[in-house]
Amino acid sequence: MIASVIVDVAARQTDRMFDYLVPNELADTIVPGVRVHVPFANRNVQGFVMKLHNEPQIAIEKLKPISDQLDLTPPVTEELLLLSEAIKEETLSYHISVLKAMLPAAMRASYDKELYLEEEDPELTGLFVDGVIASWNEFTKQAPENDIQLITRHIRKGTIRVSPIVTTKDARKKQLQVTYVQEPDLTQFSQAKKQLLLSEYLLTCEIGTSFTLKGLAEEANVTTAVINQLVDKGVLKKDYATVGRDPYAGRTFKSSVPMALTEEQQESIRPIEEAFQTNKHETFLLHGVTGSGKTEIYLQSIEQVLDKGKEAIVLVPEISLTPQMVTRFKSRFGSRVAVLHSALSKGEKYDEWRKIREGKVDVVVGARSAVFAPFTNLGIIIIDEEHEMSYKQEEAPRYHARDVAIKRASYYNCPVILGSATPSLESFARAKKGVYTLLSMQERVNQTAMPPVHVIDMREELQNGNRSMFSTSVLEAMQDRLAKKEQMVLLLNRRGYSTFIMCRDCGYVAECPHCDISLTYHRNDQSLQCHYCGHRETIPTVCPSCQSDSIRFFGTGTQKVEQELAKELPDARVIRMDVDTTRRKGSHEKLLQSFEKGEADILLGTQMIAKGLDFPNITLVGVLAADSMLHLPDFRSAERSFQLLTQVAGRAGRHDKQGEVFVQTYTPDHYSVQDVKTHNFLSFYEKEMKMRQLAGYPPYYFLAVVHVSHADLNKAVEVTTNIASYLRRSLSDSAKIYGPSASPIPRIKDRYRYQCMIKYKIEPNLHHVLQELIESYQKEIMKTDLQLHVDTNPYMML
DNA sequence: AGCACGCCGACT
DNA sequence: GTCGGCGTGCTC
Fold first, then answer.
1. What CATH number has the domain spanning A263-441?
2. I need a surface site. Which of A243, A257, A555, A690 has the fewest CB within 10 A?
3. Strand B: which positions are within 7 A of a protein CB?
4. What would the pLDDT profile of A613-626 be if each residue is shown by its tens digit?
C-alpha cells in the first residue's frame, strides 16, 4: 500500500504530494487525515496522509517507508481534507499551511538536531556532554557565535555527526499489552495451578489475541505475576500497543433556560429552523439592532440542532470573546460546550480541540480558527458580528472564516447565520440580491428606545476656546452621571499616551529609521517606539533637526485621557481598558467584573470596550474622537467608523434606564457620523454603496492585491511594474489593474513595499494567472531577497 | 525550507 | 594542491 503525503515543508517546490510505502504494521491503522513522520531528503518531517492507493507516481524501489504514525483517529476529517484543498486553491497558499491552520498549535511538529562527537578533539571539550549535544536549537540560543562556527566546521570535517530530530505531540498513548503467540503445553503445569488456569483460559482464545495485562489478569482470575511466567515460557509475548488517551473528565455548570421570544425574534428564527429541519443549506443575514436579542436566536437555533444530535459552531470576534459571552453559552449548554480562544495556553486549546474531535462536546464557541472545529455532523454555523475584520486571517493561509463557514455548511447541508447590527456591505448586498436570506430585527427586546446620539462639533469647541479633549456638554453630562451614580463608557480608539512628537518650530516629526512611520511615545519607559519593527529610542530634548527645544507631544491616547480625567473629575473612579492593561491573562475579565460591580464610574478604553458589554447601569457613552479612523487610507474606513460608533452607542441604556450618546468629531457632517445619529443603517448602506460604486470597490468589484517588497527601492518598483503589465496582458479588459503604487506604509524594516491592485467582476482565470505569476518569480525570490505575496480578498490595505 | 553537490578563488 | 565561498537543484 502507498500513501500520498503532504510534507511539512512550506515551499513552492514541495507543495505537492509525495508517495511513501505503508509498512505492514501500519497497514491496518493508517487512514487519510492522520499525521505521520516520514523521511524527507536527509531528515524526518511531519506529514499528512492525503490518500491511500496502489499506483506509485515514481518507481516503487525509490519509495521510502513511513517511519511513524501519530494518530489513530485522523485529526483532519475527510471533509476537512477536501476543504483544505479548496482553501489552498482559493487563497493561493501552500497545502501544508492550510492543514496546519486547521489543527491546534500543540499538534505541530518541532524540529531539532542532535549532535554526536565522533572523534575526540581538544577544541571541543566542554561543549559536549558525554559526547552529545542534545538540542541544537537550545545550544544556538545560548552559545557564543565562535562556538557555533567551530562546530559547523567540525560538522563539515566529519568529527561531529548530525542527527535531525522531529518531535510531535502524539495523540496516542503507548500501553503495555501481551499477545497470545503459542499454544501452551498443559502437561508442564502439574505443579503450577495458576499457570494451568491461565493456560486453559488462553486455549479458549485464538492465537494472536492481545490483552492488556490488567484485563487478562481479571478474565483468567490470576495475578500479573502468573502472566509474566507464561511470557517467560514463550506462550505470551509482551509488546506495546498504541491506544487513545483517556477520556476527558467532565465538569458541571449552572444552567439557564430559553427565554420567551418576541414576535420579531420568532419571525427571524422560523426560516432558520425550517432550513435546518429540511436539511437545506442556506445563509441567513440576521440584521438586528444592538439589544435586539440576536444571541437568544443563536441559542435557540443551536438547541434545535442539538436535539437532532447534530453539532454547532459559533464564531465570535476574538476581542468580544469575553467571559460574559462564554458564560451565556456555557450556562445554556453546560459541558457540551468547548471554548477556543487565544487566552488559552497551547495545551488548553489542545484539550478543548480533543473534546471536539472525540465527540465529547457538540458546541464550539471560538474565534476565527474555530471554524475548522473537527465536527463530523454539523447542524449549524453561526458567525456573530459578521462584519468584524478579525474573521480574515492576514497571514498565510489568508482565508476568511465567513467563506469557510459557508463552504462547510454547504457540505453538511445546514444553515449559516451571519449576525450583526452593522452588517458588512458585502453581506448586506448579497442579502439584497437574494444570495443570503435577510432577517431583520429592528426593535430592542426590552422595548427601550435607541439612545439619543448628540454629535458635537469639536471645531466649534475650539473656536469657543475649549482646547481640552472634552467638550463642555460631555463634561457636564459626565458630572451629571457621577452625581446620579450611573456608569459611563468612554471610547478613544488609540492607546498609549500621545501618538507622535513634533517640533513646533520646524515641523520635524520623529520617525522610525527603518520604517516610514512616525514613532509613538510610550510614557511608562519614556521612549519612542516603532509599532512595526519594534525600534526604540529615547525622547530627544531638543529638535534633532533645528536644535530648538519646542518639541511637543501631539495626538491623544487612552493614557493621556486617564490623566485628564483625574484633573477634570477628581472624584471619578476610572478603569482603563486597552491592550496595555489587558495583556495579562484574565485581566480583561477582572476589569470588566470590577466595573460591573460598580467599583468604577467610568470605563475608558479602545475598541475592545465597544463590543458585547451589557451592563444595566451604563447611561452615557462618549466617543472622544470619532474621526480617528475615518481618514485612514483604506476604502473601508467609513464602514468601519460607522460600525464602531454604532457598536459603542449600543452600550448605552440597554435596560430600564435611558441612555445617551455623545460623539465628538471634527467632521460632524460626514454620513458615517450622521447616520449613527439617526441609527439608520440602511441610509448609511445606500450612501456608502454609491461611494463604492463610484470608486469601483467591493461589493461592486472583487479585489486582489499583489504585494512586493525588496530592500532595494528600484528593484521593488521594477518588479511591481513588470507584474502590473503582466496582469494587464493576462486578464480580461474588464479587469482594472492599479499600480505599481507604494503601499500605504512604503517601508517597513528597511524593505520597500509596493503593490499592484486588481479590481474585477468576473475573472475565471484569475487564480491560474496569479499562480503562474508566483511561479515565474520563484527563481528571483530564491536568489535575491525579493518577497512577493498575493491576497485574493484583502481586508487590511495597510 | 534545508541540505548536498559542485565549481571557483585564496591560503598552508 | 585543499579549504571554504555560495549558486543550483532535489526531496517520494
1. 3.40.50.300
2. A257
3. 1-4
4. 778 889 999 999 88
